[in-house]
Amino acid sequence: MFHVKHCSIYLSLVMIVWLRQRPRHAILYFLMAKIISIVNQKGGVGKTTTAINLAACLAVADLKILLLDFDPQANATSGIGIDKKTVRNSVYDSLLREVELKDTICKTEIDNLDVIPSSPDLYGAEVELVNVPSRNTQLKDRLELLKEFYDFIIIDCPPSLGLLTINSFAAADSIIIPLQCEYYALEGMTQLLTTVKSIKSSINQSLAIEGILLTMFDSRTVLSNQIYSEVKKYFKEHLLSTVIPRNIRLSEAPSHGKPIIFYAHNSKGANAYLDLAKEIIQNAKKGTWERSRSAYPV
Ligand SMILES: Nc1ncnc2c1ncn2[C@@H]1O[C@H](COP(=O)(O)OP(=O)(O)OP(=O)(O)O)[C@@H](O)[C@H]1O
Ligand SMILES: [Mg+2]
């Protein structure tokens, strides 16, 4: 606990100094949360790692962050340090039971970072939601009530393009697509982008692509460099500047229930996710988000 607090103060100072170095008009004041979904129907590409670490890095920049675990595997829930056995209400209980979404929020050990946990019940939600009216916008309708309390809401999606992911598309302002630097990296991208296009023309016209995020990049391998060139060639306008390196510390951190910045704050992985947070803040600055937070819900 002391370690987390100590580290948190140091990192907060670094991020706040960075924010203050920007011209005055460039400092962010959000009115409503920007909602970012982390999506890719391919499994194991770094969605949860990105959701946890981006959320934590934004939180140390003195921004109010909600991490929503929308994957029945509940990896973000445990990875951020929530004991699944202690979870009374999960996002499932709000979607399909009478629980209000604000009553599922859990505090974390990190200042400014709250979590809505998931649970394996959510596996059933794909089927149960089918008969619910407005089934695509159930999450959006509920998140609407929480937007004024946070600066960013980060949603960790499951590895599928089913109803849960569609709900996250409907709720989001933008999506980040983690792409693992491996042989079949681009497989499924066309299908994913086609789905985004159809969501934009139907349930969420303002959905934007925040960017494609290369993950597990290993500069020593020819393959990683090939994937990088290929993505740059075909999706240049969507490629985020930050690249996440393959870093053993990133894979160790979840078993300690900590984001990388509190587990190994000097690691390459921690620096990369801090850079990603800065890039996301700068992107938000170009939008019209302003901050005037209401009283905190929990
Ligand atoms: N940059 C990285 N360096 C090293 N290991 C990583 C990195 N990013 C993720 N990993 C590891 O790769 C595995 C998959 O990552 P993660 O769980 O974030 O993927 P995911 O897309 O959320 O998976 P799923 O589709 O099952 O939800 C995990 O063991 C994670 O610790
Ligand atoms: Mg995951």
**DSSP strand content:** 15-25%
What do we call the CATH topology? Answer: Rossmann fold
Largest sheet, in brief, is: 8 strands, mixed
Please report the number of helical segments. 12
Low-confidence stretches: 22-28, 290-296
Q: What is the distance, rounded to the nearest whole angstrom, between the alpha carbons of the first and last residues?
A: 21 Å
Percent of residues in helices = 40-55%
Radius of gyration: 18 Å
List keywords for this structure.
Rossmann fold, 298 residues, eight-stranded mixed sheet, binds magnesium ion, single chain, 15% strand, disordered C terminus, alpha/beta, binds adenosine-5'-triphosphate, globular
Describe the structure in your own words.
The structure is a single chain. The chain has 298 residues and is an alpha/beta fold. It has a single domain, classed as Rossmann fold (3-Layer(aba) Sandwich), CATH 3.40.50.300. The protein is 40% helix and 15% strand. It contains twelve helices and eight strands. It has helices spanning 2-21, 47-59, 75-79, 91-96, 122-128, 138-143, 163-171, 189-200, 222-235, 248-252, 260-263, 268-286; strands at 34-38, 65-69, 106-107, 113-116, 152-156, 174-180, 208-217, 239-245. An eight-stranded mixed β-sheet has the order 3-4-2-5-1-6-7-8, sandwiched between helices. Strand 7 (208-217), helix 9 (222-235) and strand 8 (239-245) form a beta-alpha-beta unit. Helix 2 crosses helix 12. The longest helix is centred in the N-terminal third of the chain and has 20 residues, at 2-21. The radius of gyration is 18 Å and the shape is globular. The two termini are 21 Å apart. The protein binds adenosine-5'-triphosphate and magnesium ion. Adenosine-5'-triphosphate (ATP) binds next to helix 2, strand 7 and helix 10. Adenosine-5'-triphosphate binds at residues 43-49, 71, 73, 75, 159, 215-216, 244, 246-247, 250-251, 254, 269.
